């Protein structure tokens, strides 16, 4: 594993030279991880990864250059990137990607739990549905902070 990267380069739009995002978690940050995985993929480019994962190339490039924060990357994008790498024969776990992005690692998807939650949601009146969504968003925000 590469040494810990604690900050990205300065954010070009910030006159105080602050990093584009908070300090990276222990281990590789997302930029270092993606760079290493692309090297391991042998001959694959950022454009190849962007096209295969459905992430826009300029967005992926910003993550790798550390000019855009990673705290709002959709979980689906991180999962898609991991799937592409694994399809190319490069080993990477969802946990590695989420931790490198400084994001809480989502629990395993369980179709039965998801179905049950959706069934409950559909049975609630509109006001209670909104309250459930607000509660879920608050739990997600708390998980991000505690990560």
Describe the structure in your own words.
The chain is an all-alpha fold and 147 residues long. The chain has two domains: 107 residues, lambda repressor-like DNA-binding domains (434 Repressor (Amino-terminal Domain)); 36 residues, no CATH class. The protein is 56% helix and 0% strand. The chain has seven helices and no strands. It starts with 29 loop residues before the first helix and ends with a helix. The N terminus is likely disordered. This is Helix-turn-helix transcriptional regulator.
Mean pLDDT: 82
Distance separating the two termini: 21 Å
Number of β-strand runs: 0
Helices and strands: which structural class? mainly alpha
Q: Helical stretch count?
A: 7
Unreliable stretches (pLDDT < 50, length at least 5) are: 1-25
Instruction: Work out the strand percent.
Output: under 5%
Helix content: 55-70%
What is the overall silhouette? Answer: elongated
Known CATH architecture of the largest domain? Orthogonal Bundle
Under the CATH scheme, which class of the largest domain?
Mainly Alpha
CATH topology assignment of the largest domain: 434 Repressor (Amino-terminal Domain)
Backbone CA Rg: 18 Å
Order of helices and strands: HHHHHHH
Q: Describe the biggest sheet?
A: none
Number of domains: 2
CATH fourth-tier homologous superfamily of the largest domain = lambda repressor-like DNA-binding domains
Protein name: Helix-turn-helix transcriptional regulator
Region (Disordered): 1-27
Domain HTH cro/C1-type: 39-78
